[in-house]
UniProtKB/TrEMBL annotation:
TM stretches of this protein: 43-63, 75-99, 105-125, 157-186, 206-230, 250-268, 280-301, 313-331, 338-360, 372-389, 396-413, 807-826
Classification of source organism: Bacteria, Bacillati, Bacillota, Bacilli, Bacillales
Protein name: YfhO family protein
Organism: Bacillus badius
PANTHER family: INTEGRAL MEMBRANE PROTEIN, INTEGRAL MEMBRANE PROTEIN-RELATED
Coiled-coil ranges per UniProt: none
Length: 838
């Protein structure tokens, strides 16, 4: 039930991380979250505000406190996925059955329709890859129930409960459900289901008031979560989004929804459309099927960004309602119309199978043939039982038909998961052994990490180590690292990496940052004291790092030029003045003083490092370079740069250039021993930044190697680094002030006798931090492009930094107002006339 990709790279580590923080009484901010961050806000998209996960945390904490279980580790959270998923699925089916039953469908038919909804491929796909997505499937039936309660009875209590849970749980799926609510109401008003319903004007009043109250109740989660989303950065999706495009089909081989055979049989039965509830769900189902084939709709459901097919559980719910409503009135049907519907449905299955066999890739034909044969067999079984019941009208046959529907869903789901999830995505390879292997969390790696932690006295020291492409290795292996993989995090850090310092991460991505490009200046500034790698890649160790420990396969280097956590300075530079300077110049400015975003007056001047590319010799290697285009004839070809004879003081080169594959393909880039990858042009995870800066240890030649292809390569620049500024900064005598960091509060006492103007902390600049200096509220400044700057006073500075989620005080006020409003509205409408719901 766990995918080897996002399941192990994000879902399980985030659960472990949040539980560890919450169980220690730390609810908002952590230095161990990447380079530091407000995880309550930034992980609200995942689990930090997930109701299901919070209940799980409470139960696990009670069990741990009572001594019934050991402290939960990563393996515990991996194993818990199955149990939690079973319970969640049971709740999804029960709530859906309850919603269908309220709409006048008898319990057995309602349960069968709910099973069609719950036992959908989307549920299992989401659990495996992105488990938190499945929570939305639980709130959707509650939303429908609450909506129907207002329409039929004028009672908003269930609507308020549903929306409060959705707003609190996940802002993204609350947005999807809001779109669904508009669609549902439109169809619902066009096709009334009961004889007496609340007037539409009064419905709108209750929907608006109930929604506003729900927003207030959930603001304590919703506002920080939305701020975290807005404070993230995703480049605009550039590709054209077609209005209609068929990329799969929902009868045999969709990754998102496979419609059950009974649904198709019902949709082809004209007589059923005379029944109001069935007609409503059937029309809604067909409409959502059409939307499934619209990338534009997928974009709209994804905030009008790149098309993402995460909303199809809405279609599964409508299909479940259609099946439930069809079963409800099945006793009224005779066998003749069902024979015609079976013939029409079979013809559609046959035609789609024929067409698919002609256009599908040959390698996929065996898998498709298995799926086709299975689906046809289940269709024949459903058609046979359907017509048999319509002929004999026996209760036992009706029971067998419902049982066949549920079993068919189970069979389809299991076969789908086997052929796609297990065999194609390697889910079957996720095991206890894999979780404890060197590919994920090996014992040898843990041995080195623990050895470092035992010897290192600084609690803020970072280790640059990442297992393969798993950017959340620091969370998995319990150390302060330099990498993070998350859909949402502080955009200041993204801009720091992409734009301001142009730090290569080893892999281009909008949802990851990793390492510090092996650049010694940045390691010193950001408390990174150790650099750990497999022995074969140790040649790229940053300047000033010396071997400290090793095992059979790994080696750790220690920083001999560390800088203090608290740095003070009277040298002030400004981002505006450094705009046209190189990344190396910016590093020197940060080492020599502080770089501020807001300009307060004239700043210090940074001496520009000379671009020496004009004095270097450049030649092609298995390539032709002309007019900014590099045509590489074979893999590993490219360009060779021979720098001018450099000073003995030069330790490293910084090589900078713009590079893009002319045909939009992704590619691997290698400069001497350093490797990185660039995304394809159509990738939704592309940063849109095509300029790279690579640090290379001093060498006679710099070799830029690329795969065979044609590239746009221009703006070559070459800088030499002697690290004089780093040595000067590291040599400055600076007694660290008294400092205490307790959960979300940082206290510092600093006596400013040298007339320093600013204190700089390697804490990322982020809304939520509140500053007091000598009990006076002060404004935090963005310093060094993405970090925290504090204006100093002469003499004693008693500094207090407290982090609370953005808009926390406002959220608490809204919570109280929301609860009072809910009590008032529910009491006011409790005596309203009960409208018919049959």
């Amino acid at each position: 039930m766990i995918g080897p990709n996002d399941g192990l790279s994000q879902m399980v580590p985030f659960k472990k991380f949040i539980y560890d923080q919450y169980s220690e009484g730390n609810f908002f901010y952590s230095w161990a979250f990447g380079l530091g961050g407000g995880f309550y806000s930034q992980l609200a998209y995942y689990f930090s505000t997930s109701v299901i996960f919070l209940i799980t945390v409470a139960i696990v904490f009670l069990l741990e406190t009572a001594g019934l279980i050991s402290p939960p580790d990563l393996l515990f959270w991996a194993n818990s996925v199955l149990i939690v998923s079973l319970i969640r699925l049971a709740l999804i089916i029960l709530t859906a059955a309850f919603a269908f039953k309220y709409m006048g469908i008898r319990l057995s038919a309602a349960f069968t329709g709910a099973a069609v909804y719950g036992l959908s491929v989307m549920y299992f796909r989401h659990v495996i890859f992105w488990e938190f997505f499945t929570d939305a499937m639980l709130w959707l039936p509650l939303l429908v129930l609450g909506t129907e309660k207002i329409i039929r009875e004028g009672k908003p209590a269930w609507f308020i409960v549903a929306w409060s849970l959705m707003f609190f749980n996940n802002f993204y799926f609350a947005y999807i459900h809001l779109i669904f609510l508009f669609i549902y109401l439109l169809f619902r008003w066009l096709m009334p289901l009961s004889k007496q319903e609340l007037p539409k004007q009064k419905q709108l009043g209750l929907f608006f008031t109930g929604g506003l109250i729900s927003f207030c109740i959930s603001a304590i989660s919703f506002l920080p979560a939305v701020y975290g989303f807005l404070n993230n950065h995703r480049p605009a999706y550039q590709a054209e989004i077609p209005f209609f495009l068929i990329t799969d089909h929902v009868l045999y081989a969709s990754k998102y929804v496979i419609l059950p055979a009974i649904l198709l049989l019902f949709l082809f039965t004209v007589r059923l459309y005379k029944e109001r509830t069935y007609r409503f769900f059937a029309v809604l189902t067909v409409f959502l099927i059409i939307l499934h084939f619209s990338p534009w709709a997928a974009s709209a459901f994804n905030g009008f960004s790149a098309p993402q097919y995460r909303w199809e559980y809405l279609l599964s719910f409508a299909a479940g309602g259609c099946v439930a409503a069809g079963l409800q009135v099945l006793h009224k049907l005779q066998i003749r119309p069902l024979i015609f519907s079976a013939a029409g449905a079979f013809l559609l299955y046959w035609l789609l199978a024929k067409v698919t066999m002609q256009i599908i890739e040959p390698a996929l034909l065996p898998t498709f043939a298995q799926q086709r044969d299975l689906i046809i067999q289940l269709f024949v079984l459903s058609a046979f039982l359907l017509m048999l019941y319509s002929w004999k009208k026996r209760a036992v046959l009706f029971f067998l038909l419902q049982l066949a529907i549920i079993v068919s869903c189970l069979v389809v789901v299991n076969k789908y998961e086997q052929m796609t999830m297990s065999e194609k995505f390697g889910v079957d390879q996720v095991s206890r052994d894999f979780l404890q292997s060197p590919e994920y969390d090996g014992a040898e790696q843990q041995q080195l990490i623990k050895e470092i932690q035992r010897s290192e006295k600084d609690p803020f020291a970072r280790i640059d180590w990442m297992n393969g492409l798993r950017n959340n290795t620091p969370i998995v292996q319990n150390f302060n690292g330099t990498s993070l993989y998350s859909s949402i995090f502080n955009q200041e850090l993204l801009f720091f990496y992409w734009r301001d310092l142009q730090i290569d991460m080893g892999r281009e991505s909008v949802s990851r940052y990793a390492t510090l490009g092996n650049r010694a200046n940045l390691y010193g500034l950001l408390q990174t004291k150790y650099w750990m790698r497999e022995k074969g890649t140790a040649a790229n160790a940053p300047y000033g790092f010396t071997p400290a420990a090793e095992t059979a396969h790994y080696k750790v280097f220690q920083n001999t030029l560390p800088l203090p956590f608290v740095r003070t300075t009277s040298n002030v530079f400004y981002e505006e003045d450094l705009k046209n300077h190189s990344a190396l110049d910016k590093e020197h400015a940060m080492l020599s003083g502080v770089v501020l975003e807001k300009k307060h007056g004239p700043g210090q001047v940074v001496e520009k490092e000379k671009n020496t590319i004009e004095q270097a010799e450049i030649r092609e290697a298995d390539a032709i370079y002309k007019n900014g285009k590099l045509q590489v004839a074979k893999n590993g070809g490219g360009m060779i740069i021979t720098p001018r004879p450099s000073s003995e003081k030069t330790k490293d080169y910084y090589v900078q250039f713009f590079i893009k594959n002319v045909h939009g393909k992704g590619f691997k880039l290698k400069v001497n021993q350093y490797e990185t990858t660039r995304k394809a042009a159509e990738s939704i995870y592309k940063t849109g930044i095509s300029t790279v800066v690579i640090r290379v240890p001093k060498a006679e030649r710099l070799s830029i190697q690329l795969p065979k292809g044609t590239y746009e390569l221009k703006n070559l620049k070459l800088y030499e680094e002697d690290y004089e500024e780093l040595h000067r900064a590291a040599a400055q005598p600076m007694k660290q002030p008294a400092m205490n960091w307790n959960k979300n509060k940082v206290s510092i006492e600093y006596k400013n006798t040298a007339g320093e103007k600013y204190m700089v902390l390697p804490i990322p600049f982020e809304k939520g931090w509140h500053l007091k200096v000598n009990n006076e509220t002060r404004q935090i400044e963005k310093a060094n492009f993405a970090f925290t700057g504090i204006p100093l006073q002469t003499g004693m500075n008693r500094i207090e930094l407290v982090y609370r989620p953005p808009f926390f005080a406002l959220s608490m006020v809204l919570l109280v107002l929301g609860l009072l409003g809910a009590a008032w509205l529910i009491q006011r409408t409790s005596r309203r006339k009960k409208y018919s719901h049959v």
